[in-house]
Design a protein that fits this description.
Length: 437
Amino acid sequence: MGTFKIEGGHQLKGDIQPQGAKNEALQILCAVLLTSEKIIINNIPDIRDVNKLITILEHLGVKVEKLSKGSYSFQSDDLDLEYLEGELFKQEGSGLRGSIMIVGPLLARFGKGYIPRPGGDKIGRRRLDTHFEGFIKLGANFRYNKEERFYGVDAPNGLTGTYMLLDEASVTGTANIVMAAVLAKGETTIYNAACEPYLQQLCKMLVSMGANIEGIGSNLLKITGVETLGGCTHNVLPDMIEIGSWIGLAAMTKSEVTIKNVSWDDLGLIPNTFRKLGITVEKQGDDIHIPAHTNGYEVQSFIDGSIMNISDAPWPGFTPDLLSIMLVVATQAKGSVLIHQKMFESRLFFVDKLIDMGAKIILCDPHRATIIGHNFESQLKATTMTSPDIRAGISLLIAALSAKGTSTIHNIEQIDRGYENIDERLKAIGAKITRIE
Ligand SMILES: CC(=O)N[C@H]1[C@@H](OP(=O)(O)OP(=O)(O)OC[C@H]2O[C@@H](n3ccc(=O)[nH]c3=O)[C@H](O)[C@@H]2O)O[C@H](CO)[C@@H](O)[C@@H]1O
Ligand SMILES: C=C(OP(=O)(O)O)C(=O)O
């Protein structure tokens, strides 16, 4: 278990370049299984989850070549599908959430796909019903081995397009079904589809491979199946969750930071949601400039004067992956905020650590926490903590960087799952962090 030692209380200053988006990269990497032709992907982040998925692809027989930092070519022209039935896959496939998205492409191209119960954050129940209900609608047979928690689908006669209304706008579920439908016979309509930029990017990539998809960016996708798909070059967008993390970090440490090349048009409600906490988010070309909040930041209230409420919703709503960061940043705001995490059941329990550090938080129930901001009148105190999940981990890191004294964070593998070389990148703008293996 790796550890960070963090000396808090220092202002940071400088530019930071966001990495490529983790959740997009995981979808895009699975899509390379849809064609025997070569696919080139640029801006792939060098993070644990993505590297684990690349290893799974290699073990499946995909030819992977690193062209330069973040750029790889992939060719799935000679796959070893027996790997999917072996012990190694049971271990590797369960090591991350994103591995679930190999099922759709394999089912579409080879008529069968398997997956052990995927990993990812332990942040509450994480159902896979939407994925498999979608495959069944397309004509697949479904099997689930309860003992081994192993899922399987097959479609010996191929998949056939149909209409489906998803029971929830699942991000990875939509990606999986889209990747199955692009090679199905006839037309598939997916209503209540998720439409995060990750999915828009996946659909654009599939179109450049020869797929026929209408409605990209909406919750109604119409896909007309094609016989085969070809190669393409795809560029992964900057990671909007990392961008949000750096906005929060800058505000809470009163630092002046410029986040470079953020792809503003793909950030949705993110800049405005930080503004609701009183944070100044300046657009400078395609960069975000956060000035030093020397006099703090004041939470806005609603028109009727009621308490500010920040909650998550499927895109274009506010992403659940930034709520933990909002919560930690609110601990130093002037004013009070209700954070309502609607999607996940166990993502707010890390507030115990913040309360230990001196934050004023009432955990109302597993989904809601009220934060009474300190307005920097009292600094958080350093402590020792363990990172329970990726976004709680980064939030605790932000808290530690703003706190008085030296904090210790254990289980930083959770942070490394989604933040590339985070200690070195933050050191470059003045953070005092030491990694202890
Ligand atoms: C690898 C990857 O891409 N992971 C992301 C993906 O996970 P993932 O695709 O696993 O998450 P889903 O979109 O399937 O669902 C997330 C949670 O939200 C609930 N839910 C979802 C949709 C809905 O309309 N109502 C609802 O309540 C689900 O029951 C589930 O508990 O999307 C999540 C939701 O943005 C993000 O937190 C994860 O970072
Ligand atoms: C919940 C997340 O990731 P995963 O779905 O991979 O667990 C996240 O990125 O915040």
